[in-house]
Amino acid sequence: MRIVASRWETAVLVCGKCSKRLGGGFGADGRTGLAKALRRHLALKKGRKAGAGVVEVQCLGLCPKRQVVAIDAARPGEWRLVEPGTPLDVIAGELGL
Predict the structure, then answer these.
(1) What strand order describes the sheet that includes 53-57?
(2) What is the pTM of this model?
(3) Which of 37, 45, 85, 97 could be a cystine partner for 92, CB 3.0 to 4.6 Å?
(4) Is 96 exposed, middle or buried (0-12, 13-18, 19+ CB in 10 A)?
(5) Left (φ > 0), alpha (ψ -120 to 50) or beta: where does 57 sit?
(6) In the 3-class helix/strand/coil scheme, how is the chain assigned residue by residue?
(7) Backbone angles phi, psi at 14, to 5 degrees
(8) pLDDT digits (tens, 9 = 90+) for 18-71
(9) How many CB atoms lie within 10 A of CB 42?
């Protein structure tokens, strides 16, 4: 097994199924998915060279209505339900970004 270095200080998992079902709801125009909106808002570089990772996963299995599930990898016992239109600064703060 090999080890590959990364600059990530933290990682956030965002449910892709929830984001797709909403059809966006975040960002300046309100039409961007949560993961992409967070990456743009925080001006994160791509891949392992970024300061943090915002990873969109297939489905986390919670499936709330009109919300997106997000998990701060440093606190896996606390899942966040994010409503569309929530300011990205608030979301980033809650998720430890």
Answers:
(1) 53-57, 11-15, 68-72, 79-82
(2) 0.92
(3) 97
(4) middle
(5) beta
(6) CCCCCCCCCCEEEEEHHHHHHHCCCECCCCCECHHHHHHHHCCCCCHHHCCCEEEEECCCCCCCCCCEEEEECCCCCCEEEECCCCCHHHHHHHCCC
(7) -120, 130
(8) 999 998 889 888 889 999 999 999 999 989 999 999 999 999 999 999 999 999
(9) 15
